[in-house]
Task: inverse folding
């Protein structure tokens, strides 16, 4: 709401007039939920003041409210209470409260350091195409936007990064930011060898699952997009081999919930668009700047299916057995997500004048806080903008969080029902 009020100010808009409330609310929600869906061109319709407001909303939304609150507490040397530590534990998906403040310090240090390095490289690259001052400003904005998987850009005309489809520097830096922001801060801490195990560098089960599934999705996604779009005259066909590979790789990475694109999403073949919907639904990893059902949830679902096919009673990943409660939670998250996406898609199909695939794409992009669009966002009705805003909010907050907050309090069960049997399949 604060972002909405600031973006409505005439000083935030190049037109010199107040932005409509619904458009300011949509933009503020998209920035805070690090989604990237836009109803106004960030690089053209907003002034530097408005763009800085959007960038700050992205930073707060990406790192998380509790992380930023802890930063201010440390700056002003305020003691972090037990209640705050418990909230931080939940916010970072940690099983213990031990070392939580130390982890937050690492999160802030890593984030700012990665963004600073990326901003420097961006600035040097873009200094060849624009004035140095503008290049530095663009570098800082896009480093914050891409690391936090927001996907907002300043190049105007809703082009995102299509101008740099075969540019190795922009591609590599952007993909690095997207992946590091999407794997989660706990994994980054493990990779630096500064995790909870101080005596020996060792990856946790969580980190192994996140890294292996992320790598698998990127490789599979690149191959699928390359094959489907190889002969598409509107995407990969006009490009050289380097451009084809960079374009396929980037579009495989960006559904990690980043929202930036180097190929025209609306020009992709329907098979590719539907495949990207699946990647957006899976999303990033827990404790990251991304959304979706998360890579760990998807891994558990696939593992549970394979275990059932093999006739095994337990799910084992990297020689660790997972509790049934983890599997139940993964199924719950997935079913909640499917229910939300199906419901919103059905409603928008009745209220919006667009194809079913574009509506499904937009809804999944909003839920996964991705920001990719087939061009529907700017054409949404007022009702559609409100519904997509709520979907972005639900996707960023987390479905289980909403369920726990809105559902009845858990009570101790005093008895068990007799076991029943059903025919399945």
Result:
């Amino acid at each position: 709401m604060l972002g909405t009020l600031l973006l409505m100010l005439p000083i935030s808009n190049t037109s010199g007039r107040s932005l409509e409330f619904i458009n300011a609310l949509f933009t503020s929600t998209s920035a805070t939920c690090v989604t990237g869906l836009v109803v106004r061109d960030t690089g053209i319709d907003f002034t530097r003041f408005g763009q800085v407001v959007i960038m700050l909303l992205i930073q707060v939304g990406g790192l998380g409210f509790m992380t930023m609150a802890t930063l201010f507490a440390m700056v002003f040397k305020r003691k972090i209470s037990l209640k705050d530590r418990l909230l931080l534990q939940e916010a970072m998906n940690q099983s213990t409260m031990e070392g939580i403040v130390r982890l937050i310090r690492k999160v802030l240090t890593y984030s700012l350091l990665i963004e600073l390095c990326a901003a420097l490289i961006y600035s040097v690259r873009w200094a060849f195409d624009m004035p140095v001052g503008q290049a530095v400003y663009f570098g800082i904005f896009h480093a914050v936007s891409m690391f936090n998987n927001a996907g907002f850009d300043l190049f105007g005309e809703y082009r995102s990064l299509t101008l740099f489809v075969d540019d190795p520097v922009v591609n590599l830096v952007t993909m690095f930011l997207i992946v590091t922001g999407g794997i989660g801060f706990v994994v980054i801490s493990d990779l630096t060898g500064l995790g909870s195990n101080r005596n020996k560098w060792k990856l946790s089960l969580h980190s192994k699952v996140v890294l292996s599934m992320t790598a698998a999705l990127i490789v599979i996604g690149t191959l699928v997009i390359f094959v489907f779009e190889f002969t598409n005259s509107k995407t990969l066909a006009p490009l050289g081999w380097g451009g084809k590979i960079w374009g396929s790789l980037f579009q495989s990475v960006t559904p990690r919930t980043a929202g930036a694109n180097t190929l025209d999403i609306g020009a992709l073949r329907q098979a590719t668009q539907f495949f990207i919907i699946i990647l957006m639904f899976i999303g990033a990893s827990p404790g990251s700047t991304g959304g979706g059902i998360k890579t760990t949830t998807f891994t558990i679902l696939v593992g549970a299916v394979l275990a059932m096919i093999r006739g095994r009673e337990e799910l084992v990943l990297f020689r660790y057995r997972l509790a049934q409660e983890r599997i139940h939670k993964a199924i719950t998250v997935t079913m909640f997500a499917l229910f939300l996406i199906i419901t919103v898609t059905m409603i928008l199909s009745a209220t919006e004048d667009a194809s079913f695939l574009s509506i499904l794409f937009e809804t999944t992009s909003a839920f996964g806080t991705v920001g990719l669009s087939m061009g529907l966002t700017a054409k949404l009705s007022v009702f559609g903008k409100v519904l997509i805003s709520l979907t972005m909010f639900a996707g960023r907050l987390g479905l289980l969080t909403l369920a726990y907050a809105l559902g009845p309090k858990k009570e101790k069960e005093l008895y068990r029902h007799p076991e029943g049997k059903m025919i399945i399949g």
Observations:
- Residues 2-82+93-403 form one domain.
